[in-house]
Design goal:
The chain is built from 14 helices and 16 strands. By secondary structure, it is of the alpha/beta class. The two termini are 21 Å apart. Bound molecules: guanosine-5'-diphosphate and magnesium ion.
Length: 511
């Protein structure tokens, strides 16, 4: 394969039925050309240019609703953007932050290794709208968006102004190679979503709680919301989704994002988790960095998290948690060590468990929030759908009743979620019952038998516990049916990750 010029494989998923197949085929060519142009730039890390490997990108053309939903889920913004990118590799301006690992390459039968860079979502609706307002055609707009997204996947960003200059500069160069004869045309950053401007509060925005597993992030979220929403467990890495708690005050709203613990990625799933926790920090207005007060000072994970989140140049509040379990005298030296490491906005010892210091923390966060709209109606306590909360509640029971080995190899998939209304149906429909069919996916046969238990005792216990908690959440009767299925290696199967909602985008179809 020496001398082969293809560096980038582009996989497409089309979810936009509005555009006819001829248009879609043309846009695919536009995107392929754009990615080829990106992949030929000299900034790309040499380890990505090996003769026997190809980079790959999955581009999905999606509808407005899907884009809005994704934006809301991953960026806490209730708006329609033109393009979103989800990088898989940890890169900065084209260079790898960490060297390529075995898990980063998929070896195909023909001996070619594929290095997936990530997913790109493009809203053709929004792109058409923008093309119209700028005065060029859809192809040109999509080419621009693809180049922009391709650069994001390679670690370019426009968060800090130095990086932004580099990104814009590369973007211009690439667009010029694609459209050498063009005099004018779009070279700048894609449109940022328009914020809602009515009813601005003095302080409104997003706060992310970051920290290594087990420091007490979920406990704090639960303490704050006063409701049982995210899983609390002594075992690490049980929080997979970003579950939000919302604090409403007369002139302030804080939306909390509970992130999975930051740790070194092992497989596709954990990589996604790390990615999403840093991502949450990136889009937050205030970052709460939580550490365990029982440790005498920062360890390697704390340093590396700080290095990452420090780059975002956001206010960072240091929370020294579990203060209930340590002597007051030992807190002061910890504060000293951390303040030597970073210039924190403030340092607050708290106990997520007892609630000590939590009010001070909330006031500190509010102080640093910009003015903005109330992002969520006051009565909302979470934006997670009942469906995914139900899955979390089932998982919680599995964790509760089985031993360490099983839980992290399992996932819960809600196959069917149905609201049942009473008869006769009146104007104000009252939900009588919720009917849920869920699958518990596990990696091994031995796990399946553990989850089922002797004579099905275990699954019965899991089901009863989960049903009671789901009833508490939905406020009505619940019928819950659980099925245990073996799906080997589900953690690495992109398809399953998609089904489970861990990743946006679509099934990777390589055929
Ligand atoms: P996460 O992984 O950061 O979300 O951590 P969790 O919230 O799941 O908490 C991990 C463990 O620490 C659980 O056993 C909690 O009960 C415990 N924990 C959390 N906050 C506190 C606290 O303020 N004091 C004490 N003593 N334990 C806590
Ligand atoms: Mg947690």
């Amino acid at each position: 394969m020496k001398g082969c010029s293809i560096l980038m494989i582009v996989l497409f998923v089309n979810k936009q039925r509005k555009f006819d197949s001829e248009q879609i085929e043309r846009l695919k060519v536009v995107c392929q050309d754009a990615m080829d142009a990106v992949s030929k730039r000299p900034f790309i890390d040499n380890s990505l240019r090996h003769q026997s490997t190809r980079m790959s990108v999955t581009i999905s053309f999606v509808g407005s609703d899907f884009m809005k939903k994704t934006n809301y889920q991953y960026r806490n913004m209730n708006s329609l953007t033109d393009v979103l990118s989800f990088p898989l590799l940890d890169m900065h301006n084209g260079k790898m932050n960490e060297s390529l690992g075995a898990q980063d390459v998929i070896w195909h039968k023909d001996g070619i290794g594929e290095i997936p860079l990530g997913d790109v979502l493009i809203s053709l609706d929004k792109a058409s709208e923008q093309a119209l307002s700028i005065g060029h055609d859809l192809d040109r707009e999509v080419a621009f968006l693809a180049v922009h997204a391709g650069l994001h996947l390679l670690g370019f960003d426009h968060i800090d102004s130095d990086d932004e200059k580099k990104m814009l500069n590369e973007q211009k160069k690439i667009i010029r190679t694609l459209y050498p004869n063009e005099k004018t045309g779009r070279l700048d950053a894609p449109g940022s979503p328009e914020p809602v401007t009515e009813n601005l509060l003095n302080h409104s925005g997003f706060a992310a709680i970051i920290g290594r597993p087990n420091v007490g992030k979920s406990t704090l979220i639960n303490q704050i919301s006063g409701m049982k929403l995210s899983i609390i467990s002594a075992k690490p890495q049980t929080t997979r989704n970003n579950i939000r708690a919302i604090v409403n005050r007369p002139d302030a709203q804080i939306v909390f994002v509970d992130t999975p613990g930051v740790h070194k990625p092992q497989n596709e799933l954990s990589r996604f988790m790390v990615d999403s926790s840093v991502r949450a920090a990136q889009y937050a207005d205030v970052i709460a960095f939580m550490v365990d007060g029982r440790f005498s000072g920062p360890g390697e994970p704390e340093r590396s998290i700080l290095e990452k989140i420090g780059r975002f140049k956001k206010p960072i509040v240091l929370l020294i948690n579990k203060a209930d379990g340590v002597a007051k005298e030992s807190i002061l030296p910890i504060i000293g060590k951390y303040s030597a490491l970073y210039d924190f906005t403030s340092i607050i010892p708290i106990s997520a468990r007892t609630g000590d210091g939590v009010e001070d923390f909330l006031e500190e966060v509010i102080r640093h929030l910009p003015s903005g709209p109330r992002y969520y109606p006051e009565e909302d306590f979470t934006d997670q759908s009942e469906r995914s909360l139900a899955a979390e509640l089932i998982r919680e029971q599995i964790l509760k009743y089985t031993n360490q080995e099983v839980p992290h190899g399992t996932a819960v998939l809600i196959d069917h979620f149905e609201d049942v209304f009473g008869e006769p149906q009146t104007e104000d429909l009252e939900r009588q019952m919720v009917r849920i069919y869920a699958s518990i996916l596990c990696e091994r046969k031995s796990h399946k038998s553990i989850i089922l238990g002797k004579d099905g005792q275990m699954i019965k216990r899991i089901g009863t516990g989960a049903r009671q908690n789901i009833e508490r959440m939905t406020g009505c009767k619940v019928y819950l049916e659980l099925h245990v299925k073996i799906r080997e290696d589900w953690k690495n199967a992109a398809t399953h990750l998609n089904e489970l909602g861990y990743k946006p985008g679509e099934t990777r179809d390589k055929s």
